[in-house]
Each structure stands twice: as structure tokens, then as C-alpha cells.
Design goal:
2 domains; hydrolase; four-stranded antiparallel sheet; Alpha-Beta Plaits; ten-stranded mixed sheet
Length: about 475
Amino acid sequence: MKALDAIADVGRDRRTGGYRRFAWSDADLELREWFAGEAAARSMELTEDGNGNQVAWWQPALSVGRGASAASDRDPGVSIGDSSLAPASTTGAGGGSDPTVGRGASAASDRDPGVSIGDSSLAPASTTGAGGGSDPTVGRGASAASDRDPSALLLGSHLDSVPDGGAYDGPLGVVSAFAAVDRLRAEGFVPSRPIAVACFADEEGARFGVACAGSRLAAGTLAPDRALALRDVDGDTLADVLRSRGRDPYAVGRAGWLDRIGTFVELHVEQGRALVHSGDAVGVSSAIWPHGRWRLDLRGRADHAGTTPMGDRCDPMPVYARTVLAATEAATRRDARATFGKLRVHPGGANAIPSAVAAWLDARAADDATLERLVAEITDAAREAGDQAGIGIDVTAESTTPTVTFDPALTDRLARLLDAPVLPTGAGHDAGVLSATIPTTMLFVRNPTGVSHSPDEHAEDADCDAGVAALADVVRDLA
């Protein structure tokens, strides 16, 4: 099965090779159908909560007894990668070895952290939406039972992308989860707990501006009212878009199926070069740097580009430019990250001085205090430049995420199991959202370019296969 081949053209820009798979777009709906088909092909029960998160459940005890062969006719030697997805060049960006990379530092108990192994014959329960009623969950296969053990092992990731994103960020985790199930079934392995494969909705936040919206809504950390009021670039709210797709906006909100999850392991392509430097195909993540998105609104005065002397202008663009330079200097000095990757200029004419500029700052750092100081320095620099030029500035924190430390016992257990290095990441993930209430960690697959959120994002076939093997080992160990 080459599942990445099946979705290689979905949402792909023929000119750049990048992907535009935004929440509830036509490409997103096509990917949802693909996920449903993969679940059906494996006779896995498919559920979907009101937030759009899809989950496929492997519950072999519903159809086979313990010890019985659960082998399928699928090839256990899955090849995930495909040359058609690889960039023309795999030359990576520069950078030294990450000194924070280590291997399972301390021995942990072999007991599964936070996991109660019980009856293996469970199905997902119904979930509760924003309105408090029964979640309109779509079920296929065996019917859910209310008295089943909630301790399922969750795998998976997401399928949406940033603008002009890569082929592996998200999809590799979903495809690898299905491939690990195939491998284990072919070996005759029967888990003692349910295995769930998730596809989380709107992880990137490219359309509505809030990352990990699907998992945040499901976990109850994003208020439904706030989510439904979010607008895309066309001015459509999430509520509008859901209605246009035949969905009930009032079904969004906390999802009860998460209460059935005992452990979450998310596999993801590495978004950096730590594994290149360490020489490993697979690593285990220890933490996610604190990060957030801030919107800066700069207000000036529109005027004619040709007739207005430079000294008479009230132009927000030079203030924005000074802010970008200040952010670059401040982040470099702190070994942090600061990016202005999204900009809106009004009215947007080449011969018109802008009246308004909206810019989005993405900031990340190794710890919460450093991030706080970084953002304060950048916004102070923006306001100082604005005061000097007569430009009004408003700063709005759209989303912030503190440091996420993955379950130490689980992380160390998997690092020892896989003999894999342990490394932090500066990228946000659904795993970071769920880790607040569920024992969670991540596996990373080596990215030879170190590039992500770009068509140049890549992972070699052999490393993808190593990721599948590692994920299968994890399931075998935890289930």
C-alpha cells in the first residue's frame, strides 16, 4: 500500500509542488473521504465528532478471539515514501548539532504510564458537543457499548496543510498509523486494548488562524463560541463554512471519545535536522517549545504615492519594516524564533500609501520566560517606532501555548524500546494539546533537508519504513 501516492495530487499546486489543504475546503473533504476509505478497507469502525476529527478504531476482540490470527491480506512491508513526492534537491539548511538531543536519560518503570489494560472488546462511546447533547458521531461497523474499557491507544496526526506546504507534515503520521496496523495484523498480533487512528481537523490553522483547532475543541480548551466566530480571508466564519458543508455548528465542542483514550503517540516528520546530525532514522520527542501568534494592526493614512512628500506621510509600512528587523535581532540574540509570515496591506495599491497594515507574528522560545520577554521586546519596538511616525498600533494575542513536556515515563520508555534519541521541538502539534490530560509523546522521522512547511519537505522511503516499524513496536509494547 502506497497511501501517500493515493493523496499525492489532492490540493497540490502544479506550479510549486506545494499543498493547499485548508479546513473544510474541497481538498479537505476529498482527504476525509480517503481516510474513511482506508478505515473501511481495514474493517475499522469510523467515527467523526462534531469538530470534524475522524477516528478509525481497531477492535479485533469484537470479531476475533485472543490468540486468533488477525492477519490481513495487506503487505506488512509497507513502503510509504514515493519519489514523486520528493523535492528536486535534498540539500539541507545549515546549522549545528542540537545540544539538547539525548537518549532515554533515566530508567523508568515498565508499567504503562496512566494506562489501565482492561477488556479488549471496547468500542468508542458517543461524544458530547457544544450543546450538551449527543454528538452526531458517524459510526460504521460494530455498535458502541457503554460499559467498555476507556483505555485505548491513539495514533495518527492530521492531513491539512499550511499554504504551499509539504507532503509529509501530518499525512506521514496518518499513513504510518494505518501501515503499523497492517504490519501487526499480518504478524497475527492481537492487541489487548483498542487501537485508534485519528485524523485531527484543522491542525495548521491556515484558514481560520487558530492552530490545532480540532483537537483544542475536542479537548475543551477552545471555546465553541470563539471558534465559530473565527473568520477566513473571505470573511466567512467557521459557523458559515460548517453550514455550507452540511454540518451543524452547534455540534462543535468537547468530544467524549477522548475520555476513552489512555495513551497518545503521534508520529511526525521531523521539522529540523537533529536526527540528521545524530544519524538516527527515528527519534522520540521530550517537549514542545512555548509558542504563539500575535496580530499587529498598524493604522496610518492613505495618500497618493507620487504627490505626497516623504515628510508628510503617515505610512505604516516603514514602522512594520522596523518591527521585523527588531524581531529578527531580538530572536537571534535569545536563540529563539520570530517570524512575520502573513501580511495584509490596505488598500493594497502599488501607487497608494497604505492606510492600514495587519501583520502576524509567530514567536517561539525554549522556555516561557524567554518567550514572554521576546514578545514584549518586539511589541515595545513596534510601539516606539509607531509613536515616532504617528502610527497607531494594536497588538492582539490570537493564540498562545506554554511549554509542553511530554509524559516523562512514556517518553523514556519508548526511547529505550527503540534505542532512539530524545529531542525537543519548536513546532506545535495536536499531541501538545492532548498531553494536558492524556499520557502523550511523539516519534519523529528523519527529514534530510530539515525543511518543513515547504514543498522541499522530505523523508526518505527507508526512514518512513523505519518509522512504521518503530510505531508497530510501540503498539506491540503498549498494547
